[in-house]
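Worked Example 4.2. Read the sequence first, then its structure tokens.
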Amino acid sequence: MRRLPITTAFLLVAVVAIGQGQQRQEIRDPSHRVIGTITTRKDGVKEARDRQYRLLGTYNPKTNETRDRDYRLVGKGDLLSALLWKPGPAR
């Protein structure tokens, strides 16, 4: 299991309903640029995608597991925002 870095940056989230039981959250960086989306499918599984719409990982609430695009376990719980956020160099 990989350890994800802890960051103190703030992410902004805008929730958009996209119909038929699906919901999409746009995740933005502190400069209000979209860095990715988290979409909740009808079956409850959440998918994280980057700004080019490439799949980064999924969270299954039935198993309470987050997995990356290669289906490797990232950890227990919903860790999708950590897959989206890549902090810059330390200042």
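Now turn to a second chain, presented in exactly the same format:
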Amino acid sequence: MTRPALSSILHGYCHTGAVLTVFGVSALTFMMLMYAGESRHSGFVLAFACGCGLASLYGFLSGAWAFGVVEAIWALVALRRFANRVANAS
């Protein structure tokens, strides 16, 4: 049985790291764009909550659990804000 070369192991890690980085940048960009649109429509508040959830997932996947926890809390806060907006609109 042969062992894989170190370069092939590192290549796989770097590829996974790049994919995770692209996911994180995309999630944070989406979150900030939705935050900017919150005053336009309550749907942006719900989308912001989803963006926070994605950012939280990124935090946990990247090993930054504190970031993941904070973003999860922000997602819950945004969901509550969305619920309050919908209740006040009707």
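Notes for the reader: The radius of gyration is 18 Å. The first helix runs from residue 6 to 36.
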